[in-house]
Amino acid sequence: MTAAGSKPQVHKKLSRDLSQLAEEMKRFSTFKQVMDYSQFFSENSKLRKHSAIRAMQKYLSIPGMISLGGGLPNTQTFPFESISVKLKTGETIELKDKVLDKALQYGSTPGDSQLVDWLRQLQEQVHNPPYQSYDICVGNGSQDLITKAMEALINPGDTILIESPTYVGILAFLRPLGAKFLEIPVDNQGIQPDALEEALLNWPDIATRPKVLYTVPTAGNPTGLSTIYERKKKVYEIAQKFNLIILEDDPYYYLQFKTPLTPSYFSLDCDGRVLRFDSVSKILSGGMRVGWVSGPPALVERIVLHGMATNLHPSGVSQLLVHTVLNKWGVNGFLEHTRSVAQFYEKRRDAFLHSLDTHLKGKAEWTVPEAGMFVWIKLPINDSFDLITNKAREAKILLVPGVEFFPNKRDTGYVRASYSYATEEEMDEACRRLAELL
Ligand code: PMP
């Protein structure tokens, strides 16, 4: 493994030199004004307490401790002898004995400590955050952690600042939570800081101020568009001015087609006001359900307290598999792997854009994503819902109507298309069929 702090070759190529940035940002810290994190907690979260049983877990590793306290099942009764993993490179890893036993047993709520240590190395090398006392908590994918963070920060009736259009999976959680949406529009350079500032400047004195901004800065789902670095800096300054917490939902970060990778909000965070969500879903496996959040301990603790009372912890076996492969690769190997995944999608993007050009030029408009797996297509109609949910399905093309991605629903001619899965021939045929429908 590469020691944290030493910047290996591949990292230099991938990321900008963030050390100067980190130093610069520290000078702008308004941390002293933000320190009281309890001002951000929802009423629900304030009621969450440490589980008495879960809290005992840290004592288990003390030498000589005899545990009659927990309800741990005895691993001798489990039927699994070993797990053999063969990577596509041909290497085989055998997981057995104590290592496997640990993964099969109940584990700690914030995640396996070895995996957490590895992820910290990654965060240091890739983001080098100026706010250094951050914690990391692993979850069942990043969605698990984002929704817990939202529950911890938002009361029913609160307004959340949310980029628009945005990830539909988060809207599905926020609507029943009773959140109101203040939409901040995105364009081809990402979220618009001027619109954010204006909304906050014009906020009526009598209404509870929004305190949370949710953003998907890389390859936004559905637009495929990313927020440029200059805008991130402006948004961060606005967050400082208006005392906001930024929820940086960034599962497509490593799917940027060009390097150096754009610095994250986390790498600008000198105050401790960013909760950054990462995921292995798009780069190792979606089914493994492993994601992680990095951010100020007081906020990460809210997520952990929620986990203690709900899913207890992410799957031990998934964490072991993920840690085993990451540890084998090291940070450099991981970054190299993500490059090959990004190149895979870039090639598909090119093929899809070519098919769009061939069949839909003059009939529709679309974004040219520089990362991720989505293209946001504007059809020459006021509302795409009927065409996409009925006629397109009859013609055997699946697309998502744009209305789903607007927090405050509205008629829109947009649709989301993904170039991640279908073959190049299928993508071409889908474009041909869509053109025919139009
Ligand atoms: N955020 C965004 C923007 C996503 O597109 C997704 C997956 N569709 C998620 C979060 C959830 O990812 P995970 O598999 O890590 O829960």
From TrEMBL:
Keywords: Aminotransferase, Pyridoxal phosphate, Transferase
GO biological process: alpha-amino acid metabolic process
Molecular-function annotations in GO: 2-aminoadipate transaminase activity; kynurenine-glyoxylate transaminase activity; pyridoxal phosphate binding
Alphabetized CDD domains for the sequence: AAT_like
InterPro entries the record matches: Aminotransferase_I/II_large (IPR004839), Class-I_PLP-dep_aminotransf (IPR050859), PyrdxlP-dep_Trfase (IPR015424), PyrdxlP-dep_Trfase_major (IPR015421)
UniProt xrefs under Pfam families: Aminotran_1_2
Taxonomic superkingdom: Eukaryota
Record's signal peptide: none
Transferase listed as a keyword: yes
CC terms in the record's Gene Ontology section: mitochondrial matrix
Occurrences of domain Aminotransferase class I/classII large (ranges): 102-434
Names of the cofactor(s): pyridoxal 5'-phosphate
Recorded family membership: Belongs to the class-I pyridoxal-phosphate-dependent aminotransferase family.
The protein's name in its UniProt record: Aminotransferase class I/classII large domain-containing protein
